[in-house]
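Page 42, continued from yesterday. The earlier attempt failed because a stray header line got pasted into the input along with the sequence. Redoing it now with the clean sequence only.
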Amino acid sequence: MKNIQLEKTVKRKQEARDIAREVINFGITEDQKIDIMFHIAMTLESNNAMSQITKLLKKFRETINKEENTENNDNKSKILI
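This time it went through. Structure tokens are written below.
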């Protein structure tokens, strides 16, 4: 009985890895990876897990946005005419 459950768990984990690999092979940016993780987390049945994961991802997304704004501002000031 435990062997069957273990085999099912292994199969589900392999399927999850295959799905992740397929998404990555699709050719997505780092920002899109975070957005995908955020949207998947929003579908979790566990409210506690959903809340903690999305909170973490929101903080990371804000950091990326701040870095992009800084990079964009730096690039504007470095334009040569």
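Notes: The first helix runs from residue 2 to 25.
Reminder to self: strip header lines before submitting.
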